[in-house]
Specification:
single chain; 379 residues; alpha/beta; eight-stranded parallel beta sheet; three-stranded mixed beta sheet; 11 strands
Length: 379
């Protein structure tokens, strides 16, 4: 990965809204348009917009042997995110959101379709093929060529510890066996991205937002053991892949709720840094986590590590002022070194905000990075 040498580099967490209207361009054209938009704005490391996976379990039911769908049992939820302690604290808020069918309260948001089936491990999980990831890689390569290229590019793939929120275990004897089986099945997808020359982004919200999905509430020690298993499984899947081709993204969930039960970053920061990835991407721009930049003062950044803090948020319609963005960047640069910071977003912005606001926030991100660069390098 390229470091911030002479100026703060910019990127984002993955999901973006389409630029070309649906139906008016093929998928390669859609991705090419999104690439051009990112480059024009000033994003250095671009993504393909994540137009691919839809509902997670449907994608991996096709990709994995041993995963099947079955109807929900009476009273059963289709996803762990539907059973949280925060939902218990704010039943009216989430009841109203469920009735409207929204998670993000975005104008034009398609109503969320309730789960009627559940994906489960019904037998030994194996990667069936990498057909889908190969198609995504090919489309991204073709789109980059059509768009005239970019500085650097990345593709997102799920972490095993996030996928287990959407695939239930009804086969393996232990949680560890199940998570490592998911990791083994994901290995070829990871390799396909890196071998194609792209940066691999591991999407791993479960690292911290699983905390609120476990009932009864675990102790911090219990939770740390839980996520340590998942980080070990992820590192197993990354075995043999150079760390400088990988960035690890985690967040506290993208839905527009209260987030009063979010786990403090300091509780798991040391375990997060064990992931075999050169870069760590995380939420730092919204009002629930902006203060946590100070946690990095108490951590020795591992040699070669790059931080990708979110300096604009998916959680508010307010477009951050470039001066505020520059201030956030400088907080991190002054703490861990300017060359070790790339400016990013808290989470994927597409579908979490109106498309007009997504591009306005990315433009503000690029301008804030320019202001921070001028202050940090004096030019």
């Amino acid at each position: 990965m390229r470091r911030s040498e002479g100026a703060i580099r910019t990127t984002h967490a993955g999901r973006l809204p389409p630029v070309a209207p649906t139906g008016e361009a093929d998928i390669t054209g859609q991705v090419a348009a999104v690439i051009k938009k990112q480059v024009q704005i000033g994003i250095n490391c671009v993504g393909d917009g994540e137009f691919w996976n839809g509902r997670y379990f449907q994608y991996y039911t096709d990709q994995f042997e041993g995963v099947a769908e079955r109807p929900l049992k009476p009273g059963e939820r289709g996803s762990t995110r539907e059973e949280t302690r925060e939902r218990d604290e704010f039943p009216k808020l989430y009841g109203d959101m469920d009735r409207v069918g929204t998670m993000f309260c975005v104008p034009g948001e398609a109503p969320r379709v309730p789960f009627r089936t559940k994906a489960i491990a019904a037998g030994p999980i194996k990667g069936r093929a990498t057909e889908a990831i190969r198609r995504e890689v090919k489309v991204f390569k073709d789109a980059l060529e059509a768009a005239g290229g970019a500085d650097e590019a990345f593709i997102c793939v799920f972490a095993p510890g996030w996928l287990d929120h959407h695939i239930g275990n009804e086969f393996y004897k232990t949680d560890e066996e199940f998570v490592f089986a998911l990791a083994e099945a994901l290995r070829e997808e990871y390799r396909a991205v890196v071998e194609a020359g792209f940066i691999l982004q591991i999407d791993d919200p479960g690292l911290v937002d699983s905390w609120d999905m476990i009932k009864p509430e675990p102790t911090i020690s219990e939770y740390r053991r839980y996520i340590k298993t998942r980080v070990d499984a992820l590192n197993h899947a990354l075995s043999g892949i150079p760390a400088d081709r990988v960035r690890h993204h985690f967040c506290w969930g993208s839905w527009h709720g209260a987030h009063t039960h979010d786990l403090p970053l300091s509780s798991v920061l040391d375990i997060a840094l064990e992931v075999k990835a050169q870069a760590t991407s995380f939420e730092a721009g919204n009002v629930r986590h902006q203060h946590e930049w100070t946690a990095w003062k108490d951590v020795k950044l591992p040699d070669g590590k790059i931080l990708v803090p979110g300096v604009v948020s998916h959680a508010t319609n307010l477009v951050e002022h470039p001066e505020l963005i520059a201030q956030r960047i400088r907080n991190f640069a002054d703490t861990v070194g300017r060359e070790n910071v790339i400016a990013g977003t808290d989470c994927g912005l597409g579908s979490r905000l109106h498309e007009d606001l997504v591009w306005a926030k990315l433009s503000a991100l690029a301008e804030g990075a320019r202001l921070a660069s001028k202050a940090l390098w004096g030019r």
